[in-house]
Specification:
Layout lengths: L1 E7 L9 E6 L10 E6 L2 E11 L14 E2 L8 H14 L3 H7 L3 H5 L6 E7 L11 H13 L1 E3 H8 L1 H10 L2 E7 L18 H9 L5 E6 L5 H14 L3 E5 L6 H12 L3 E4 L5 H12 L5 E4 L11 E7 L7 E2 L5 E2 H12 L2 E6 L4 H8 L4 E5 L10 E6 H6 L8 H12 L3 E5 L9 E3 L16 E3 L4 E3 L6 E3 L12 E3 L4 H11 L5 E4 L9 H11 L3 E5 L12 E6 L13 H13 L10 E6 L5 H7 L3 H14 L6 E10 L2 H21 L4 E14 L2 E11 L3 H9 L9 E6 L6
Parallel strand pairs: 9-16, 9-17, 10-12, 10-13, 11-12, 13-16, 18-28, 19-26, 19-27, 25-26, 27-28
Antiparallel strand pairs: 1-2, 1-4, 3-4, 3-5, 6-7, 6-8, 14-15, 20-24, 21-22, 22-23, 29-31, 29-32, 30-31
Bound molecules: adenosine-5'-diphosphate (ADP) and zinc ion (2 copies).
The site of one zinc ion has 7 residues, from loops.
């Protein structure tokens, strides 16, 4: 008798371990298979994560596996290893990890293979009664075609004669699976000679390790990726390419389909359930050799990986913020090591963290500092909006922006207008002098909480009075809130009533295929203007876009996040990179209320290295990552007394850890979360920062501080994006 260690596919904390079941002799149950098992009075689904030849449990008390669910092991051995890694390092529940590895459609059983009904002749020399004319036509047709879809024949020649033939047994009906095809734009394959910089990059990226490809926007990174993938395919291996947002994938997918054809599978959240299910199985069974997808594609069951590429590696969307929390880089690093393959992190603006790893030698740095066409980077003009105000212009658009837009319209070219919107929290700003309130202790911007009319620091929890008078200049003209895309489109229409203006944001892209359709319409519109949020910032390659307008650059600058300046630099560089990608140098108009902020100076000069130095130094001095780790433990429960009590117990234990690692901690406190109640649950948090020397050790100690039996739900987050 064999035994199986099974993880029950349920959320309950008490079930978060392996349970032993016996495998009855008549069943074949394999490692990684899903099975049905009896559990108490119920029958539940579970995953077999180990097969044992014996057990220390009393065999007479062990229940038996009822049956396998799918008939093949859905979790491959690499993913089992990854599960153990994630359990140990990210402290996630086993079931919630395993769920990441399967399309949810599969677990709910709601989606099935798409089976298509076909017909073919069973007998070539049928003798039909004279009056069966239609049947005769169908037979002639099938003699020629051999096979046809049931529905086609029935539609063309009638259902009755076809089913009569089937009934007589002259025509055979059979089913075949049809994979649902993901829609993409067909473009012709353009294979061009590589530039010397591209060749150099390809020459360098050869060893099985991690590379940071730092290439300016328009330096032709995609072409490098495709050549790397080609090389890997030639060796009989496979490739995984991640892109940050689905708005990017229409173009990327079109390129990849043109180059690699049916070898490409696509995984992202914009697919229909059926498409996702089919793409996943194409990958699982080795039909697809190249996977292109968003964050979740890092878990695709592709085997024999030769290369993993993370494009726009600095993007925050690579970090999953909701449960289960993980960082795509870390998972990619695991898979790279497991497969002994190459990992490429590509960006025009690498994250401070990745770039410092490159400088430390953990990654190898590969640089492409010049655009493919040799064109200079777009010229960035910084417009001081306070100055505009002083000159009587209180509109959304500055005078230079309107002037440049008029030029674009006249030349029948294209422009993109970028609205910087993120999150629902906001800061308060003096409209006279540009003053923004900051925390005295943390040097991050305070967030305005409308409900309580208070300013709060999201790092230390300190509260401040909301501004009514500017402490810097005494003005009462305090403003908060952001401009929306809709407003911008309305205003633009007043200036340019005859120009097609497109809007791309969460509202206009909620429907399937909407991204592709908006982008395709914009591509044809000359002149044309595309207004959008972060969605239009990256990846797009429109050769006639010669102007980019950034309406409110400061929006991301004053978020309560130690990375907000870094994010602003990245955004400006990315958005600016959309302009002047072809024959004409581009222009960027950047509107700001803080024109003298250093971030704009570095961005204006495309001085990534200068910016990195300045920013890294600031982080070092203020003890923020990558020089420390920020760890947040978030407790939530409907009963406030329970959260408060449980977090106190945890906090006391964390304090003991801090005592033991006195020199390592730079900050520790417990507080209500800035957003104290979400979806009827009260939220409290413990926040800490500690140095890196003993970080792993401390982290492990901290994880032990949470009582297994706590009633609250508990989340750990390392270097969280959002502290609200
Ligand atoms: P990045 O991703 O670095 O911003 P892209 O990969 O989008 O840059 O390339 C910018 C443009 O240059 C694209 O239009 C691409 O087709 C073109 N391109 C890339 N490599 C070459 C090459 N070797 N010769 C000519 N054009 C190229
Ligand atoms: Zn603070
Ligand atoms: Zn002021």
């Amino acid at each position: 008798m064999k035994f199986a260690n099974v993880i029950i596919d349920q959320d309950a904390k008490a079930l978060d371990r392996e349970f032993v079941y016996a495998i009855p002799d008549h069943l074949s149950v394999k490692l990684g298979e899903r099975v049905l098992v009896p559990f108490g009075a119920r029958v539940l689904e579970g995953f077999v994560v180990e097969i044992l030849n014996e057990t220390t449990f009393d065999e007479t008390k062990i229940k038996e596996v009822i049956r396998p669910v799918d008939g093949f092991p859905v979790i491959k051995s690499e993913m089992l290893a990854l599960m153990h890694y994630m359990k140990e390092n990210l402290h996630l529940k086993l079931a919630s990890i395993l769920r990441l590895f399967l399309p949810s459609e599969m677990r709910t059983g709601k989606v099935k293979e798409l089976l298509v009904r076909y017909v073919r002749l069973r007998n070539e020399d049928v003798i039909l009664p004279k009056n069966a004319k239609k049947q005769a036509i169908i037979l002639e047709f099938l003699k020629e075609k051999k096979v046809a879809k049931f529905s086609d024949i029935s539609a063309e020649f009638g259902y009755a004669p076809l089913s009569a033939l089937v009934k007589k047994g002259e025509v055979e009906v059979f089913f075949e699976e049809q994979k649902r095809a993901v829609a993409y734009d067909k473009i012709s394959l353009q294979k061009r000679p590589l530039t010397p910089l591209q060749q150099r990059a390809l020459g360098t990226i050869r060893q099985n390790k991690t590379y940071l490809l730092h290439g300016v926007t328009g330096s032709g990174k995609t072409e490098v990726y495709m050549n790397l993938i080609e090389r890997v395919l030639e060796k009989g291996k496979t490739a995984l390419m991640l892109v940050p947002e689905i708005s990017l994938t229409p173009q990327v997918l079109a390129n990849f389909k043109a180059r690699f054809g049916e070898n490409v599978a696509l995984i992202h959240s914009g697919l229909s359930a059926g498409e996702r299910f089919d793409e996943w199985r194409r990958i699982f069974f080795g039909e697809a050799k190249v996977v292109v997808g968003a964050r979740s594609a890092i878990f695709s069951p592709i085997e024999n990986l030769g290369i993993i590429i993370i494009d726009e590696e600095h993007e925050q969307s690579y970090i999953s913020e909701s449960n289960p929390r993980y960082d795509t880089h870390e998972i990619a690093e695991f898979r790279r090591k497991y497969n002994d393959s190459i990992l490429v992190l590509g960006s025009a603006t690498p994250s401070i963290e990745s770039y410092s790893k490159a400088l430390d030698g953990e990654y190898e740095l590969v640089e492409m500092p010049v655009r493919v066409n040799g064109m200079e980077m777009p010229k960035i003009l910084i417009v001081d909006m306070l100055d505009e105000l002083r000159h009587g212009n209180s509109e959304i658009f500055s005078i230079p922006l309107i002037a440049e837009l008029s030029n674009v319209v006249e030349e029948k070219k294209q422009a993109m207008i970028f609205i910087n919107r993120r999150g629902f929290s906001s800061f308060q700003r003096c409209r006279e002098c540009g003053y923004v309130a900051k925390c005295k202790d943390c040097d991050v911007s305070l967030v305005y909480h409308h409900y309580e009319n208070k300013l709060k620091c999201h790092y230390c929890g300190k509260r401040y009075r909301a501004l009514d008078i500017c402490p810097s200049c005494g003005s009462h003209n305090i403003k908060q809130g952001a401009i929306g895309t809709e407003r911008v489109v309305e205003e633009l229409k007043k200036y340019f009533p005859n120009v097609p203006i497109f809007r791309m944001d969460n509202d206009t892209t909620s429907q399937k295929g909407a991204h592709r359709s908006i982008l395709n319409q914009f591509r044809e519109a000359k002149p044309g203007i595309l207004v959008g949020t972060q969605m239009i910032a990256k990846g797009h390659d429109f050769e006639d876009v010669i102007l980019v307008g950034i309406v409110d650059a400061d929006q991301s600058l004053y978020q309560a996040d130690y990375r907000s300046i870094e994010k602003t630099f990245q955004l400006i560089t990315q958005v600016s990179g959309r302009a002047g990608r072809s024959k004409q140098q581009g222009k960027v108009i950047l509107q700001t209320y803080s024109p003298r902020h250093y971030v704009y100076r570095y961005a204006q000069n495309y001085d990534f290295k200068g910016f990195f130095k300045k920013e890294a130094n600031l982080r070092k001095v203020t003890n923020f990552p990558p020089y420390t780790k920020v760890l947040r433990i978030l407790f939530s429960h409907e009963d406030e007394n329970i959260v408060a009590k449980e977090i106190k117990v945890c906090y006391n234990k964390v304090q003991e850890v801090k005592e033991r690692f006195k020199d390592e901690f730079v900050y520790l406190d417990v507080m209500k979360s800035p957003l104290n109640r979400i979806k009827t649950k009260y939220r409290y948090q413990i926040l800490m920062r500690f140095k890196l020397n003993k970080a792993k050790e401390i982290e492990n100690e901290i994880f032990k501080c949470v009582d297994e039996k706590a009633k609250s739900s508990v989340f750990f987050e390392v270097n969280p994006n959002n502290l609200s």
